[in-house]
Design goal:
- By secondary structure, the protein is of the alpha+beta class.
- The chain is built from 19 helices and 27 strands.
- Helix 11 runs antiparallel to helix 15 and helix 11 packs antiparallel against helix 19.
- The radius of gyration is 38 Å and the shape is globular.
- This is Protein kinase domain-containing protein.
Length: about 675
């Protein structure tokens, strides 16, 4: 009985342990799989990063993150911001860490948008870029767990990655039109369609407000097919095919220039070594006809000609008898070099010093040689004499490997503009080099990035911008201007004003079309004046100056009174935002009106000189009314209404769009 009772106790204990185990397992199953206790969380909600970007360009983009954590993001010991987690060796991102401002607070559920600039590498391919929210404390980053990644395709600047394929580059009016090939949407203009096999393609360009245009485009191997489509007119689509220089003979030679130079140098010096043995190349050998003119036999300071004796007794080697070794220095070929006296050596060396800059320096370094008079060998510093001749334009040494200076195109207190030739392709450019160190402010760099993406026939092309600690410059399209009385006038500021009405209208149309295009991209100029409108040799106007930085207003009008220039070209809202409101498109339209007024009348609006010409009382406050063009010249009355609207002090009375101004200008100038 005792044994049975013992087994019952053991069995009861086992059952109790099983029940407890089941209860524990059920509690574990009921617990949540994970508990999220993260205070800092941020998820990607939107971005404007394109799927495909071109090498050689920069892309302003935005990325939006949402605060999905438990606390607000604001300024404190930890600095919140967006951190780029990719490799800067692939796609460059500026800035790498975009921090929130001091007065910014992003509460849970709120969104924050960060502006960035992407710069693709030169090598085409697929690149993945990653971003996440992070905090910065001291020098350490603490990244949030959520990461946003996107793969971007980088194509070559002209869309051609090899000589067996071609590309199509489409631009249109208006921009942002949809491009389709065979019914497949390829993107919006301006658009580069890369790496297409050679064939005939059916391409169409469409915009909601205009009739779709269809065209057949031929793509050739190693070539770019460019289309310029104007949906606003019935003109035929402009198509041109350009051969990519990289896949031509000239391009091959340029690409392999170092190798070719090395090969030629090896061949040349190899021949020189062979030439030293007259048994291989006798005096009358044809090879000597080509090598002899560039074989230089140095004259030593003891008066001897460096040479090797031939195997024939009494005769000198070919190098001694070469024309450059004897005749140039005035020695008779039959003379023995060993018989020249020290006095003859000094006389001959002095002649060489007079003939060749720098030769006297070599003599001075040898002035302690036995038998020479040190006082007689003292010569002027000929290198100093030739310093200004070798670099008459003051061109920076750091740019000589890329550009050949051809002249100075302009100069002011901020920068000097050089006319240069690019050494890699021979193109003529205007190089604007800053006089100041550390000239590349963040705003200036972003403005230059935006300008570099503008493509319009009435906007000066910016090819490249570099901002270093010691040297900052802009590589611009060079415009040679118009010829006038033996000189060149390169900008509207240089034109003698007033100019003939038909030229004033033509030029202002060019400027207006450039502004219309940039306004459609959301870009404003804000400091447009005659010095920023450049001229081609065909008297076409192009707008420049889209990158000036925050520390410069940009008014450099050498032909005008500098005290009146800011008052004339600054719109009222730029002088007092509290009274006249914020700058915008209408600011550019006001400045366009100042230029048009000056071209037609020769005066600046609201100026004392205009009032005096019209016999109207002018007040020191700047004039209380606009002197109409007809008050200065009766035949300009048709522009009274136009300029009154453009130059209205009240922004509400100005043209809202450049299109409205162009429409009224067409009516006023209609025959």
């Amino acid at each position: 009985m005792s044994i049975s009772y013992s087994w019952q106790r053991i069995l009861a204990c086992v059952v109790l342990f099983v029940v407890l185990g089941i209860l524990m397992l059920s509690l574990v199953d009921a617990a949540p799989a994970s508990i999220d206790v993260s205070y800092y969380k941020g998820e990607h909600s939107n971005d404007t990063i394109p799927d495909m970007i071109e090498a050689g360009k920069t892309y302003p983009v935005t990325i939006t993150f949402r605060n999905t954590g438990m606390v607000s993001w604001d300024w404190g010991v930890e600095k919140f911001g967006l951190l780029y987690q990719g490799l800067q060796s692939s796609i460059l991102v500026d800035p790498v860490f975009s921090r929130l401002g001091k007065d910014t607070e992003i509460k849970p559920g709120d969104d924050i948008t960060f502006p960035l600039i992407l710069t693709p590498p030169e090598k085409p391919g697929d690149y993945t870029i990653s971003f996440s929210m992070a905090t910065l404390k001291g020098d350490s980053y603490n990244t949030f767990p959520e990461t946003f990644s996107k793969t971007v395709k980088v194509i070559s600047e002209d869309g051609i990655s090899s000589g067996s394929v071609g590309s199509i580059i489409v631009s249109s009016i208006p921009t942002g039109s949809q491009v389709l090939i065979g019914g497949d949407v390829r993107g919006n203009t301006p658009l580069t369609i890369p790496d297409l096999r050679p064939a005939m393609y059916d391409l169409s360009v469409a915009s909601p407000d205009y009739q779709t245009k269809a065209v057949q485009v031929t793509v050739e191997a190693g070539s770019v097919s460019r289309l310029r489509v104007d949906l606003t007119s019935s003109n035929k689509t402009d198509i041109s095919i350009e051969k990519d220089e990289r896949y031509t003979l000239l391009g091959f030679l340029k690409e392999n220039l170092p190798l070719l130079i090395l090969t030629i140098a090896i061949l040349f010096f190899g021949l020189q070594m062979l030439m030293m043995d007259t048994k291989r190349f006798p005096e009358n050998h044809p090879v000597r006809l080509f090598v002899r003119p560039i074989t230089i036999v140095p004259v030593s300071f003891d008066g001897k000609v460096s040479s090797r004796k031939s195997s024939k007794k009494g005769s000198t080697s070919g190098s001694e008898n070469s024309g450059t070794g004897a005749d140039e220095h005035g020695f008779r070929k039959g003379d023995s070099s060993a018989t020249r006296t020290t006095g003859q050596t000094q006389s001959r060396s002095k002649e060489l010093k007079d003939k060749k800059p720098g030769y006297g320096d070599e003599q001075k370094s040898k002035k302690n040689l036995k038998g020479e008079n040190a006082d007689e060998l003292k010569v002027p510093d000929v290198d100093q004499q030739y310093q200004d001749i070798s670099n008459p334009f003051g061109f920076p040494d750091g740019l000589k490997d890329r550009y050949e200076p051809l002249g100075v195109a302009g100069d002011d207190s901020y920068a000097r503009v050089f006319k240069v030739r690019k050494k890699d392709n021979g193109s003529i450019r205007a190089l604007k080099v800053s006089h100041m160190k550390n000239a590349g402010s963040e705003i200036l760099q972003k403005e230059a990035s935006v300008w570099g993406n503008i493509r319009h026939p009435n906007v000066v092309r910016l090819y490249k911008a570099e901002f270093d600690d010691d040297l900052s410059f802009l590589d611009l399209e060079f415009l040679d201007g118009i010829k006038y009385r033996g000189g060149s006038l390169t900008s509207l500021s240089a034109l003698p004003k007033p100019i003939r009405e038909k030229y004033a209208v033509s030029l202002i149309r060019d400027v207006a079309n450039g502004l219309k295009y940039t306004h459609s991209l959301g870009i404003r100029h804000y400091h447009l004046q005659t010095g920023d409108v450049l001229l081609t040799h065909k008297m076409q106007a192009k707008i420049s100056g889209y990158a000036r930085g925050k520390n410069e207003l940009g008014f450099s009008v050498p032909e005008s009174d500098t005290r009146e220039a800011p008052a004339a070209y600054l719109a009222p809202e730029q002088r007092d935002e509290a009274i006249f409101g914020n700058p915008g498109r209408k600011t550019d339209i006001y400045q366009l009106g100042v230029i048009f007024y000056e071209l037609l009348t020769g005066f600046l609006p609201y100026s004392r000189s205009a009032a005096d010409k019209a016999s109207v009382e002018w007040h020191e406050s700047g004039g209380n009314r606009l002197i109409l063009p007809s008050e200065l010249k009766s035949e300009l009355s048709k522009y009274d209404m136009i300029l009154s609207r453009m130059l209205a002090t009240d922004k509400k009375k100005r043209y809202a769009l450049v299109d409205e101004f162009l429409a009224d200008l067409d009516i006023a100038t209609a025959p």
